[in-house]
Write a structure and sequence with these properties.
GIY-YIG endonuclease; six-stranded parallel β-sheet; Rossmann fold; globular; seven-stranded parallel β-sheet; 4 domains; about 700 residues; binds zinc ion
Length: about 700
C-alpha cells in the first residue's frame, strides 16, 4: 500500500523537511515510520515531488495536523547525514541568510536529489544501488612518493601543527617556493597515523593534475589505494557521486577539493587545510554566496580540530586575525630549494618608447634569456586580440548591443575576425566598415594576449611562442598538453593570463615580464591593490625557481605606488601594514563588516527604486533596534557595468562596525524585502561579506 494512503492517524510521526526552493521552510510532513534527522525523503510539494532532507522530528506539527501531507518515500540508500554536518549547514544558512534547503540539497551530488533517479522508468533501486552494482576496477597502489627532507622552518611548522590540540587556526605564511605543500603533507601524515581524516582545499584542480598525483603518491601509502577522493566542479555526476559516497562511508580518508568540497561529508576529521587561502575562487559567486575559507575556519572550530591557512600573500582578513592573536602565524621565509628570490625591476613606461606595449628593457632582457636558452613568460591578464575595435574617423567603438561594455576583438585561427562580449557571450563577425560613418579603416584598440603573441612571433622569429589563456585551453586536456610542452622546453616564450600564475613550477623559466598591471591599480574596488599584489607575487614566483637568478620586469606608469615598491622588495608584510592603515582609516573590512544587496531588472530605475525602498525599510529596522549608530546604509548605485545581457544591475552597500549588529539587521530586514512594492519587478540577492563591490 502506498504510504500516502496509509491510515496513520493513530500514531503518526511528524518530520520537518527542507527542500531546494527559495522558500524559508522547513515544511512539516507525516510519516508512519520513524525517520532520523539527516535522512533524505521524497515529498509531495504543491503538484510536484521533491527530494528533501529531514532536519527535525517535532512532537506536534506547526500547523493543523489534518492539513499535513504524508511523505512519499524514505531514501535509505545513504546513511543519514551526521549531526556535525547538519550543524555546519545550519550555520552556513544562518550566516549567509539563505533557506536551509538551499544549502543542504545543493551540497549533495545531483543524483541523490533528483526524484527521477528514484521514480523514473529505469531508476531501479536508485543511483547508489546502480553505482554499487557496477564493477569498478580496484584502485592500484601507487609508487610511494619521494619525500624531500624538511628544512628547519618547515620542520618547526610541522611540529607546531602536530603539537596543537583542539581548534588551532594557523596562518602558514610562506613565499612562493618555500615548501608549504610539504608542511601540509607532513601534518597530514601525522593526522592519518592517528586514524583521523583530512579535508584539503585548493583553489584549482583541473589545471594541476600533477599536484593531485603527487598528493596521492604521498598519502595513499597511509590511507590505502583509493584513499584520496578528489572533488571539483569538473567531475561528471557519476564521478562526483562515487567520490562523495567513498567519503561518506569513510573509505576515502583524504578529500582534496575546490571550494565546494567544504561541504564534503568527511567523517572523523582531524585536520583542515586551505591552500592559497587568499584566492578569490574560494568565494562562490551565485546561489549560496559562501567563502569556503571562512567556512573552513568555522568547521574546524566546531569540530575542535586544527586548520592551516597557507599563502604567500594572505588575505588582509587572515593577516589581521594573526596580528590580533586569533590565529598563530608560522613563517617560511626561505625558498625550500635554497635558491634566491627573483630580482624585481620596475620599468617606468611614462618616459619610454614602447614597441607594441613592450619596453626596450623588457625586449632586451628577453633577448638575453633566450640567447641563454632560458624560457620567458609574458604575463597579461587580458585575453583576445584587442579589448575593442574602433574607428579613427568618427570615434565609433565596438559595443555589445546587450551590455554596457565593449566587445573584444578575437582573431580566428583561419583569419576570420570576430567581436566577442566577455560578459554575455555575444559574438559577431567584424563589420567590413564602420557602422556609423562607413570608413573601412577600423583599428584594434589596446592589446590582448593574442596580439602580444603575434608581435612576439615577429620580433623573435627563432623562438617558439605559445599562448595559454581561456581561449587556447577550451578543450579538455589542452591546458595540460600546453603545460607539458612548456615543461619539455618545446616552448621558448609563453604568453599567458592568470591561468599560468597558479602553482606551476617551470624549471627553466628565467624571466617574467608583466604588461599592463596598472589596469587593476585604479579599480574602484578597495580590494584591488591587495589582489594585484597577490597576482604579481604569484606570477613573479614563476621566475628562477630552479636556476636561482630569476628576474621579473613589471611595466608600470606608477612605479612609486606602494604595491609595486613592496613587490620589488618581496615585502608582503610592508604592503599589508600600509593597506591595513588605509583600511582602518576608511573603516573598511576587516575593520568593518559588509553586506551587499543587489537588484536586477530590465530598466535601471526599477532596480534603483527597489533598493531605495529596501534602504528605507532597513532604516526602520535600525531605528526599532536602536542600532543605527553601528550600521551605515549607503545610497543605491548602479554597477560599473550597469547592463549585462539586457539586465540592469544596481547595489546597496550595508556596513557595520559590529558583526552582530549587521546580522541582527539582515535577519529582520530579509523578512521585509519580499513585501516591498517594487520587489515583484526585480530579482534581488543578498551577499554577506562580498568580495567585489
Ligand atoms: Zn566611423
Ligand atoms: Zn554582452
Amino acid at each position: 500500500m502506498p504510504l500516502s494512503d496509509a491510515k496513520t492517524d493513530d500514531h503518526p510521526y511528524w518530520v520537518r523537511v527542507v527542500v531546494d526552493l527559495p522558500l524559508q521552510g522547513p515544511f512539516d510532513y507525516r510519516s508512519d515510520e520513524e525517520i532520523s534527522v539527516g535522512t533524505r525523503v521524497i515529498v509531495p510539494f504543491g503538484r510536484r515531488k521533491l527530494v528533501g532532507m529531514v532536519v527535525d522530528c517535532p512532537q506536534v506539527p506547526a500547523h493543523d495536523p489534518d492539513q499535513v501531507r504524508a511523505i512519499e518515500s524514505v531514501l535509505r540508500d545513504v546513511e543519514p547525514m551526521e549531526d556535525s554536518w547538519l550543524r555546519f549547514a545550519r550555520f552556513a544558512a544562518d550566516y549567509y541568510q539563505r533557506p536551509l534547503g538551499e544549502v543542504i540539497l545543493p551540497a549533495l551530488p545531483q543524483p541523490l536529489r533528483r526524484v527521477s533517479d528514484y521514480q523514473g522508468k529505469r531508476s531501479g533501486a536508485g543511483p547508489v544501488a546502480r553505482l554499487d552494482k557496477r564493477r569498478v576496477a580496484a584502485a592500484q597502489p601507487l609508487e610511494p612518493g619521494f619525500a624531500p627532507a624538511l628544512n628547519q622552518a618547515q620542520q618547526a611548522a610541522v611540529d607546531a601543527v602536530g603539537a596543537a590540540t583542539g581548534f588551532a587556526p594557523t596562518l602558514l605564511f610562506g613565499v612562493t617556493g618555500s615548501g608549504k605543500t610539504e608542511v601540509y603533507l607532513h601534518a597530514a601524515q601525522q593526522v592519518l597515523a592517528q586514524g583521523r581524516n583530512i579535508l584539503m582545499l585548493v583553489p584549482e584542480i583541473n589545471l594541476t593534475p600533477q599536484f593531485e598525483r603527487a598528493l596521492r603518491a604521498r598519502l595513499e601509502p597511509a590511507t590505502g589505494p583509493g584513499g584520496v577522493a578528489v572533488m571539483h566542479s569538473g567531475l561528471s555526476d557519476g564521478e562526483r557521486l562515487r567520490a562523495w559516497l567513498r567519503v561518506r562511508r569513510g573509505e576515502a580518508r583524504v578529500v582534496l577539493g575546490t571550494r565546494l568540497a567544504i561541504f564534503a561529508p568527511v567523517v572523523n576529521v582531524g585536520l583542515i587545510v586551505v591552500d592559497e587561502e587568499h584566492d578569490p575562487s574560494y568565494k562562490q559567486q551565485d546561489g549560496l554566496r559562501y567563502s569556503a575559507r571562512d567556512l573552513a575556519v568555522w568547521r574546524a572550530r566546531d569540530l575542535g580540530v586544527p586548520v592551516i591557512l597557507g599563502s604567500a600573500t594572505p588575505s588582509l582578513e587572515s593577516w589581521v586575525n594573526a596580528e590580533r592573536g586569533h590565529y598563530r602565524r608560522l613563517d617560511l621565509t626561505d625558498r625550500a630549494r635554497d635558491v634566491e628570490m627573483p630580482t624585481v625591476r620596475l620599468v617606468d613606461t611614462r618616459r619610454l618608447p614602447m614597441e607594441n606595449g613592450m619596453s626596450p628593457q623588457l625586449l632586451e632582457a628577453m633577448r638575453r634569456r633566450l640567447d641563454n636558452n632560458e624560457q620567458v613568460l609574458v604575463y597579461l591578464n587580458r585575453r583576445g586580440y584587442a579589448p575593442a575595435l574602433h574607428c579613427a574617423s568618427c570615434g565609433w567603438v565596438s559595443q555589445c548591443p546587450r551590455c554596457t561594455a565593449y566587445t573584444v576583438l578575437h582573431r580566428g585561427q583561419f583569419g576570420g575576425h570576430q567581436l566577442h562580449c566577455h560578459h554575455c557571450g555575444y559574438q559577431r563577425r567584424v563589420p567590413p566598415a564602420c557602422p556609423d560613418c562607413g570608413d573601412q579603416d577600423l583599428q584594434p584598440m589596446g592589446r590582448g594576449t593574442q596580439r602580444i603573441e603575434e608581435h612576439l612571433a615577429e620580433l623573435f622569429p627563432q623562438a617558439r611562442v605559445a599562448r595559454i589563456d581561456a581561449d587556447t585551453t577550451r578543450l579538455k586536456g589542452s591546458a595540460q598538453a600546453l603545460f607539458d610542452r612548456v615543461h619539455a622546453h618545446e616552448i621558448d616564450i609563453l604568453v599567458g593570463t592568470q591561468m599560468v600564475a597558479k602553482g606551476h613550477d617551470f624549471a627553466n623559466l628565467g624571466l617574467v615580464g608583466v604588461l599592463n598591471a596598472d589596469a587593476m591599480l585604479f579599480s574602484q574596488d578597495f580590494r584591488a591593490p591587495e589582489r594585484l599584489f597577490a597576482q604579481l607575487m604569484q606570477v613573479s614566483g614563476r621566475a628562477g625557481r630552479h636556476t636561482g637568478h630569476g628576474e621579473v620586469i613589471v611595466q608600470t606608469g606608477y612605479p612609486e605606488q606602494t604595491v609595486y615598491q613592496a613587490l620589488a622588495r618581496h615585502d608582503f608584510a610592508g604592503f599589508a601594514r600600509h593597506a591595513m592603515r588605509e583600511r582602518e582609516a576608511a573603516s573598511l573590512p576587516p575593520y568593518s563588516h559588509q553586506a551587499l544587496l543587489t537588484a536586477e531588472s530590465r530598466e535601471l530605475p526599477e532596480a534603483l527604486a527597489f533598493l531605495q525602498q529596501a534602504r528605507a525599510s532597513a532604516e526602520d529596522v535600525l531605528q526599532r533596534e536602536g542600532t543605527h549608530e553601528l550600521v551605515s546604509l549607503y545610497d543605491p548605485v548602479p554597477f560599473r557595468i550597469v547592463r549585462v545581457a539586457h539586465v540592469c544591475r544596481a547595489q546597496l552597500l550595508v556596513e557595520a562596525t559590529q558583526r552582530s549588529a549587521l546580522h541582527t539587521l539582515l535577519r529582520r530586514w530579509l523578512a521585509d524585502l519580499n513585501a516591498l512594492p517594487e520587489a515583484r519587478r526585480v530579482r534581488w540577492q543578498l551577499e554577506v561579506d562580498p568580495l567585489e563591490i
